[in-house]
Inverse folding.
């Protein structure tokens, strides 16, 4: 029989449950990526009639996940109703039955794709799943339950472990002591790490790419493209194409209003004839980036009043963290919860990770726009801190990479420990 | 400096001579579809099927010959050379006294010959217009004024399609690169795993020899990663 440790190396598998995207795959350089969403298909009248004629009855809803979703999409109204992203800010409600079914189908989809063909030795993957650092215990239990069920039905999972996303980032970045800021679609987690994630010091913010999407949607409405707003994917495309992080928002807006042509942006939606031109409102490009870092800026008040959701406050223990706190203040808050002597080491390496930090900086606008690392460094410097801030090489994949490394390294015979929240969870 | 009163009579004399004595017919710039390209001192004429362009250059004689004037004449030759595609013949016309005084300085005859542009002198006192240098007639039919807007639109659309194709190919290439990297890692892991199975004597294997992850060919983000050692101790600390 093959050594279990060697078996684990061969069949390690990592999953990153991001709010927007699910990244998955066995040992390799890059993961596969699908959207963390499912399309609910009600059985059609014809299907129901045929089922009845055949003596049965179709009651259940079908859930489509992965690339196939695009083939079933109907009108925009149908999409809004039946296309479900189960996670909100990295979390699914315990009683969200449909949400958990979608997660199950997405997980099954990923594991099935890599089932080795004709390998008699294959007894299931060693799966390292990555969840938000603030995921409640029931999410761990649900994820275990789903993998166990899939294994019982298809023999695809031998054991599973769960790793918090910021820890995965630190592992992927080969940094044992650092401050990780992971910002995805739904939330932003600030987590000091010193060999272990310092759980008591984690600051989680209920904001991420979704807030930038909401501002982008409002900007599109203002520019007369309100009909495009219900398409989340399109809004995201526009955000990625035109959004800019300002080094200093007020200065950037002033410059953009003085020299409109320089900042004007025309976006052609790929594969369509649609053209989006912000015209004189091109200065609003800077709001898309700024909202990630400082949604408390007074300029956003008018947007909140018009219906753009204000980031919700987070409750950490007995403390309430304002949803609109600046990212610099939130990072400082996390550091302050750590022992003083650790601060120096944490400031030596602040790691930014997650798709929400992957912003382009056009060469010709470098005097006013910057990347996420420069922005955070400047914000912390303005608070009198000297820090080294770096952006991970592949912001979208670093969690997955860390989870895979975790799967390979954690000893196979280390059983899951609910106190330490680590080890392998097994059922056979 | 230009002299307005003389200019009128120069132009009048030139037009009269070209129409009455030379038998040309004056056309409006609109008639040849070149309204925007032609100036006030340009005279467009027709001789049978031939189109002729005469550019009258009016220069004040009272001042010294400035480099600006020479530049202007050179510029005019250049302009006529560009426009010559639309005409069978092109001339530059200058007052005779200017030519007598400054001929070698303001007119580069070789340049005129090379460009195929003729030279006319106007003698206001004698009421004469003489051809000093004949133009090179263009035998081919004059260039059509083609509306290139549809062509440009078509080109723009083609460029756009090429851009989209380029983006798609670039994305596909990146995906292929990633897939190749992934496959390399899989192959290396499978090979290393197999060769290690062959290398390790069974007895040693049974004794529970620890697998060193660092010995395997791993994805780049795992190589030299201090976490491997930290995590390997988990559960034993």
């Amino acid at each position: 029989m093959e050594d279990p440790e060697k078996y684990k190396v061969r069949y390690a598998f990592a999953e990153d449950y991001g709010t927007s995207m699910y990244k998955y795959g066995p040992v390799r350089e890059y993961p596969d990526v699908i959207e963390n969403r499912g399309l609910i298909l009600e059985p059609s009248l014809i299907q129901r009639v045929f089922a009845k004629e055949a003596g049965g009855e179709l009651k259940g809803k079908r859930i489509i996940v992965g690339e196939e979703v695009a083939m079933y999409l109907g009108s925009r109204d149908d999409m809004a109703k039946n296309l479900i992203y189960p996670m909100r800010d990295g979390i699914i409600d315990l009683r969200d039955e449909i949400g958990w079914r979608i997660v199950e189908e997405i997980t099954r989809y990923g594991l099935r794709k890599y089932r080795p063909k004709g390998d008699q030795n294959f007894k299931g993957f060693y799966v390292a799943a990555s969840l938000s650092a603030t995921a409640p215990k029931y999410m761990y239990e649900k994820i275990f339950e789903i993998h166990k069920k899939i294994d019982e039905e298809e023999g695809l999972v031998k054991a599973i472990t769960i790793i918090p996303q910021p820890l995965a980032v630190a592992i992927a970045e080969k940094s044992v002591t650092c401050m990780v800021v992971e910002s995805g679609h739904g939330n932003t987690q600030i987590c000091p790490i010193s060999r272990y994630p310092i759980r008591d010091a984690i600051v989680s913010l209920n904001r991420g790419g979704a807030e930038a999407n909401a501002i982008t949607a409002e900007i599109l409405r203002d520019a007369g493209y309100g009909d495009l707003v219900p398409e989340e994917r399109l809004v995201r495309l526009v955000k990625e194409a035109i959004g800019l992080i300002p080094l200093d928002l007020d200065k950037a807006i002033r410059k953009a209003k003085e020299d409109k042509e320089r900042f004007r942006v025309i976006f052609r939606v790929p594969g369509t004839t649609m053209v989006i031109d912000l015209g004189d409102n091109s200065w609003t490009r800077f709001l898309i980036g700024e909202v990630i870092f400082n949604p408390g800026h007074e300029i956003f008040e008018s947007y909140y009043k018009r219906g753009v959701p204000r980031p919700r406050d987070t409750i950490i223990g007995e403390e309430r963290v304002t949803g609109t706190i600046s990212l610099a203040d939130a990072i400082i808050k996390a550091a302050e919860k750590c022992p003083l002597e650790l601060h120096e080491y944490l400031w030596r390496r602040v790691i930014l990770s997650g798709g929400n930090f992957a912003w382009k900086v056009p060469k010709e606008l470098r005097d006013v726009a910057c990347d996420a690392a420069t922005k955070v460094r400047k914000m912390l410097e303005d608070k009198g801190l000297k820090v080294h801030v770096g952006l991970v090489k592949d912001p979208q994949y670093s969690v997955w990479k860390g989870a895979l490394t975790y799967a390979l390294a954690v000893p196979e015979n280390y059983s899951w420990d609910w106190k330490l929240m680590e080890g392998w969870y097994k059922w056979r | 400096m230009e002299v307005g009163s003389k200019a009128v009579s120069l132009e009048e004399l030139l037009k009269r001579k070209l129409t009455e004595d030379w038998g040309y017919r004056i056309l409006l710039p609109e008639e040849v579809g070149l309204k925007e390209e032609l100036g006030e001192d340009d005279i467009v004429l027709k001789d049978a099927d031939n189109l002729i362009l005469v550019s009258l250059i009016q220069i004040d004689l009272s001042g010294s010959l400035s480099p600006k004037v020479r530049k202007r004449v050179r510029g005019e030759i250049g302009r006529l050379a560009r426009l010559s595609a639309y005409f069978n013949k092109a001339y530059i016309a200058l007052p005779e006294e200017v030519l007598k005084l400054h001929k070698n300085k303001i007119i580069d005859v070789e340049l005129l010959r090379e460009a195929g542009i003729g030279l006319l002198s106007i003698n206001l006192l004698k009421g004469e217009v003489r051809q000093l240098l004949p133009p090179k007639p263009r035998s081919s039919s004059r260039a059509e004024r083609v509306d290139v807007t549809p062509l440009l639109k078509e080109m723009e659309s083609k460029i756009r399609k090429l851009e989209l194709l380029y983006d798609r190919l670039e994305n596909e290439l990146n995906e292929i690169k990633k897939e190749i990297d992934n496959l390399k890692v899989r192959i290396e892991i499978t090979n290393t795993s197999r060769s290690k199975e062959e290398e390790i004597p069974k007895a040693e294997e049974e004794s529970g020899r620890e697998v060193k992850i660092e010995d395997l060919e791993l994805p780049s983000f795992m190589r030299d990663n201090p976490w491997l050692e930290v995590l390997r101790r988990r559960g034993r600390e």
